[in-house]
Amino acid sequence: MAKTKTTKMPKMPRAVRRVVGHEVRLLASIARWVARRPHGSRRGRAFGYARGQGAMMFGFGFVCVLESVCMTVLLRNYPAVHRVWLALDVYTLLLVVGLHAASVTRPHVLDDTTLRIRRAVHVDLRVPLASIASVRREMVATHERRDGELNLDIGAQTTITIELDSPVRHLTFLGRPRDVRLIRFHADEPEDLVREIRDRAGRAAPRTLARAPRTY
């Protein structure tokens, strides 16, 4: 019998897989938000960061709804085009809601050995407490991209700065690795988180964390 050739389906490019996976996780976060089931916070203390972006995300959602209403009027004589545009508007609105839902349901998590820093579904960085050289409450509203630094601002600001003795590996949105030694991120209750990091890191490492002065 003649062997039949099997054709292999071409693999989806890595960047496309990451984008699709990102959007799937955003949509799944809406269900978590409705069910009030935070992700990955059972083994430590959770610290939220989404409060600072609530008004902005509401504004984005309102713009999407307003655009949909306007396009409904403009495209009333083109039903096929209107259906396509409406589907895109609804999907965009779902992504906006999903982004906020992901921020709410994926908080920062601190346990006895690790600080898990997150932003929605596209940043999930685990920082060993033993590698933290200093941590401080510091509000920064202007961020420049520099080698070895990671800025995770919410509402265009960060409230906590961490400096590391040894770098940690961070993966960008499209999966490119970066080694970072300085991390700035936002927390709704920065003073509580800084104090808890210092307490737990002091127990995790035989040295005392450098306590830099606060900057407001």
Taken together, the total number of domains comes to 2
Overall CATH class of the largest domain: Mainly Beta
Q: Numbering strands along the chain, what is their spatial order in the largest sheet? A: 1-2-3-4
Mean pLDDT reading:
87
Under CATH, the topology of the largest domain can be stated as: PH-domain like
Helix/strand-derived category reads alpha+beta
Question: Can you name the CATH architecture of the largest domain?
Answer: Roll
Amino- and carboxy-terminal Cα gap: 79 Å
**Strand share of the residues?**
25-35%
Topology:
Elements (H helix, E strand, L loop, with lengths): L13 H22 L9 E3 L6 H21 L4 H27 L2 E3 L3 E6 L3 E6 L3 E9 L8 E4 L5 E14 L5 E9 L4 H15 L12
Parallel strand pairs: 6-8
Antiparallel strand pairs: 1-2, 2-3, 3-4, 5-7, 7-8
Provide keyphrases for this structure.
single chain, 216 residues, alpha+beta, PH-domain like, four-stranded antiparallel beta sheet, four-stranded mixed beta sheet, 8 strands
Please describe what this structure looks like.
- The chain has 216 residues and is an alpha+beta fold.
- It has 2 domains: 17-105; 108-204, PH-domain like.
- Helices cover 39% and strands 25% of the residues.
- It has 4 helices and 8 strands; from the N terminus they run αβααβββββββα.
- It has helices at 14-35, 54-74, 79-105, 190-204; strands at residues 45-47, 108-110, 114-119, 123-128, 132-140, 149-152, 158-171, 177-185.
- The chain has a 4-stranded antiparallel sheet with strand order 1-2-3-4, with helices on one face. Strands 5-7-8-6 form a 4-stranded mixed sheet, with helices on one face.
- Helix 1 packs across helix 3 and helix 2 (54-74) runs antiparallel to helix 3 (79-105).
- It is elongated, with a radius of gyration of 22 Å.
- Residues 207-216 have low confidence and may be disordered.
